[in-house]
Amino acid sequence: MTAKHTSTQVAAEEKPLGSGWRERWHEVIFEADTPWGKRFDVALLVLILLSVLAVCLESVRELRETHGLTLRAIEWVFTGLFTLEYGARLISVRRPLRYALSFYGLVDLLAILPTFLVYFLPGSQALLVIRALRLLRVFRIMKLAHFVGEAQLLGAAMRASIHKIVIFIGVVLSIVLIFGALMYVIEGEENGFTSIPVSIYWAVVTLSTVGFGDIVPHTVLGRVVSAILMLMGYAIIAVPTGIVTVELSAATRAANNTQSCPSCGASDHDNDARHCKHCGTKL
Amino acid sequence: MTAKHTSTQVAAEEKPLGSGWRERWHEVIFEADTPWGKRFDVALLVLILLSVLAVCLESVRELRETHGLTLRAIEWVFTGLFTLEYGARLISVRRPLRYALSFYGLVDLLAILPTFLVYFLPGSQALLVIRALRLLRVFRIMKLAHFVGEAQLLGAAMRASIHKIVIFIGVVLSIVLIFGALMYVIEGEENGFTSIPVSIYWAVVTLSTVGFGDIVPHTVLGRVVSAILMLMGYAIIAVPTGIVTVELSAATRAANNTQSCPSCGASDHDNDARHCKHCGTKL
Amino acid sequence: MTAKHTSTQVAAEEKPLGSGWRERWHEVIFEADTPWGKRFDVALLVLILLSVLAVCLESVRELRETHGLTLRAIEWVFTGLFTLEYGARLISVRRPLRYALSFYGLVDLLAILPTFLVYFLPGSQALLVIRALRLLRVFRIMKLAHFVGEAQLLGAAMRASIHKIVIFIGVVLSIVLIFGALMYVIEGEENGFTSIPVSIYWAVVTLSTVGFGDIVPHTVLGRVVSAILMLMGYAIIAVPTGIVTVELSAATRAANNTQSCPSCGASDHDNDARHCKHCGTKL
Amino acid sequence: MTAKHTSTQVAAEEKPLGSGWRERWHEVIFEADTPWGKRFDVALLVLILLSVLAVCLESVRELRETHGLTLRAIEWVFTGLFTLEYGARLISVRRPLRYALSFYGLVDLLAILPTFLVYFLPGSQALLVIRALRLLRVFRIMKLAHFVGEAQLLGAAMRASIHKIVIFIGVVLSIVLIFGALMYVIEGEENGFTSIPVSIYWAVVTLSTVGFGDIVPHTVLGRVVSAILMLMGYAIIAVPTGIVTVELSAATRAANNTQSCPSCGASDHDNDARHCKHCGTKL
Lengths: 283, 283, 283, 283
Description:
The structure is a homotetramer.
Chain A lengths: L7 H6 L7 H10 L4 H24 L2 H32 L3 H6 L1 H8 L2 H5 L17 H7 L3 H16 L1 H26 L8 H12 L12 H17 L1 H18 L28
Helix pairs in contact in A: 2-3, 2-4, 3-4, 9-13, 10-11, 10-12
C-alpha cells in the first residue's frame, strides 16, 4: 500500500497505486488529474460561488422578507452538501486528524459551522462568507501552473521585503499615534476628535488618503497639521511601492538565468543565451 | 482588381490600384494617406467631438429647458451625418458584413442607434456618448506612429503582467468579500451597513482609498477593522505598481534593441550585446 | 560694449565688461555672482514670501475686518516695491521689449497688475498669489547647481514619457466620459447625477480616488458600476508610476558613463571605472 | 578607567572594564548584551506600551468618567517609574549633560514632563503619547541587525533622493498655492472657500486624493478646475514613487557587493565584477 499524504503537491507526484474505494475517492476529491476529479472540482467551484451569493442575498432585508424561507432552505442545502463533502474528505484521507487541523481542513469546517451556530449566536450566518476562502483550494488543485509560478514570484518578492515592510509599518503606526494625540490636543472633543483612539482612527483615514470626511479638522492649526499629515501620506506611499518594485525586479531576474562567461566573466546573460554577448565565447 | 481588406494596416501597405468610385471612396473614408483622406479624418474628428459635447450639454436641465429644440435638432443633424457616413462605409468596403461585425463597425452603429431608440426607451440618448469611442478610429487611422508604438509598449507590458494582475484582483476581491461580511456583522444595519452587498461596496470604497464617507463605521471594533483595511489598501497598491513597472521596464528594454544576427538571424539581443548570444557571431 | 542678454545663463558666462550704471544695475538685479547681487536676491526672496503671506491673510474675513487698512497699505507697499523693481529691470536690460515678453517678464508684470486692476474688477487681488511664481526666478538665479541638475533629470524623464502620458490621459478621459454617461443613465437626476458633465466630474472624483462624497451612488447597479470604476482607478495609477520609474531609471543611467570595453565589449561600467570589471582591460 | 560614551554604538564595542556600580548600571540600562540588560529592555518595552495604552484609554470620556481615578493613578505610577529610570540614566552615564541634551535624553524627559505640566496646562497629558517615541530606543538597543541594515538602506535611498524630493515638494506647494487662490476667486465665500488659506487647505486635501468632502466646489468652473487638480494629484504621485524606486534600487545594488580589491583596496564594485574597476586586478 502506498503512503498517502493530505498534501496535494506530494500526492500529485506519486500516483496512488492502490484501487480501494478510499483511493478512488481521494483521487476524485483531492486531485484534478482524472476526468472525474476535474468534474468534482468544477462542481465544487460552482457550488461555492452559489453559496456565497446566497449568503450575500440573504443579508438584504427586502429579499430576506420576501424570499426568507427559500434562502434559508438553500443555505441548509448548501451546508448539507458541504457537510457531506467534509465527511467524505475525512474518510478518504489516510490521516483524518492531520487534514482536519490543516489550513484547508479548518476552512472547510469553518465554512459549515456558522449555519449550525446560528441557533446560539444570531447573525453568525454572515460568517458563511468564509466559504469564499474555499475557492483557494480549487484554485490550487487546478494546478494552474502559470498562476502558481506568478503567485510564488509575488510571494517571494513579499517575503524578501518583509523586513523593510515591518519598518515601514512601524513608521506609519508611529506617525498615526503622534498625529492622533496631537490632533486630539489641538481640535478637542467639540470638533469630533472625542478621544485619542478616535483621533488615531482619523489619522489612519487621513494618512492612507481614504478621507471619509466623518471627522474633519475645524481649527486653523488643526488644518495645518492635517495638511502636513496628508502630504506625508501622499509621499510615504512611494516607499512600499519602491520596496515591492525593487524586490519584484530582483525576484524576476533571479528566476532568469545567471551563467557567467568563462572568458570575460560577464554574467548579465539572458535565459536563452548560448554565447557570451560581450565576447562571443560559448557559455 | 486588388484584394481589399477592412484592416487599415494591410490596406495601407498595398495601395489600391483600381480607380472605381468605390476605391476612391474607400481611400477617402478608411485611409489617411491622401489629402482628401486626411481632410475627411480631421472633419470626422471635429464632428465627433462636437456631437459628444452636444450630448453632454443636452443633459443639463437648464440648457435643455431653454435650448431644448436647438440641441435636439443638432443631435438629429449629427445622427444624420453619422448615418450617411455609416452607409458610405458599408458601400465602399468590399465585405460590408465583415465591417459591420468588426469592433469599429459595431461602435459606428452604436453611435447612431440611441437617437432612434429614444422613441422606445426614454433617456437612452445619453448613450450617444459612445460616440467618443469613435475617436479611437481616427487616432488609429492618423497613423501617429510614435503613439501607436508607445501604446503597443504599454499594451505589451499589460499583457505580460496579466497573470499577476489576475492574482492581484483575486486577492483584492477576497479581501473585500471577507471584510464586507465582517463589517456587516460588526456594525449592523443601524450603522448603515444594511446588507453584505452594501458592506462589500463600502469595503471597495475603503480599500481603493476613495472614501466617499456615505457609509462610515461607528463602533470601536468597526473602526479598528476599518483602519486595518485602509492600511492594507494603502500598502497593497504597491503590488500592481511594482508589476507594471517591472514589465514596462522589460518591454522597453526589448523594444530598444533591434539588431539581428548576420549569421543566424536571431534578433532578441540586449542593447549592449556585441556578439550574437545564440551563435557567437559578431554583430 | 559687450552684447547683453536677458538670459541669465548666457550672461553668467560672459561677464559684462562695461562699467556704466546700467551694467552695474544689471549685475545686481539679474545675477547672483557679486555680493550685492546675492543680497538683492535674498531680499527679493523674503519680499515675495511676505507679499504672498499678506495676500493670503487679507483674504481671511476676520483679519480683513479688523486689520483691513493695514493689510491694504502693506499690499500697496509691496506692489510699489515690485513696480520699482519691474521698472529697474526694464531700464537695466539692453532689450526691454524682449525681457517684457519673456516668461519671467510676464510673471513680473502679472505680479503687480492685479493691485491696479482691483478698481475695475473686484476680488482680482487674490490673483496676486501669482507672485509665488516669481520665486522660480530666485531659485534659478541662485544657481543651485545640484537642484538644477536633478530638476533637469526629472524634466528629461517627463519629456521622454510624454507620449505614454498622453495615451494614459486619453484612456483616463475616455473612461471618465463613458462612466459619467453610464452613471447619469443609471442613477438619474434624483440621486444627484443631475447631468452628464456633473456625472463626469463625479467619475473624475472617483477614478482619482479623491472621493469627496458630495455625489454618491444610491442604486444597486450604480454601486456595482462605481465599485468597478474605483478598482480601475486603484489599478490604473500603476501605469503613470511605472512609466515615470522606467524613464527616470533610464535618465539616471544615461547621466552615468557608457564607455564600452575595447577588449570584451561590455558596456555596463560605472562612472568612475578605469578598468573593465569583466576582463580587467584599461578603458 | 575606560572612557565611557553615551553613544550606545561605541559603548557596545568597547566593553566597560570597570566594575563599579555605575558600570554595572550602565550595562543593564543602556545595553542589551547581558541577560539583565535584555530583561531590562523587555520590561521597558512592555512598560512603554502599557503607558501609551493607558494615556489613550484615559482620553476616552466614558472610561475617564468611570475609571478616572484608577487611570490617573496608573499614569502617576508610570511617570514615577520613568522618572526613576531617567534619574538612573543620568547617574549611570559618565557625562549626564551630554545624555540629557541628546535626542534620546530629550525624548526621555519629554515622556515624563506632561504629567507634571498638567497642573499648569490642562489637557497636556495627551502629549504623554510622546512616550511612543521611546520605543525607538529599545528598537535600537536590541540591535536587530537585519532591521537596522534595512532601515539604513531605506534611509540611504531617502537621503540620495532628497534633492529631487525637495523639488517635488516645491512643485506641490506651488500647485496648491496657485489652485487655492484660483478656487477662492472662482467659488468664493458662499461656497465654503472662505479664504485663501482655507482654499489652500482644500487644495492639499484634493491633490493628495484624501478628499474629505467638507469643502466641495459647486460652480461649473470650480468643478472643472477641481477635476484638473485631481488628475494632477493622481498623476504626480508617480514622481516620488519613481524617485524612491530608482534610489532604492541603486542603494540595494550598492549594499549587495562588498568585495574589496586585493591590490588597491577599492570596495565599490558591482555584483558581477570580476576585475577591480580602478586598477584591473582580479577580485
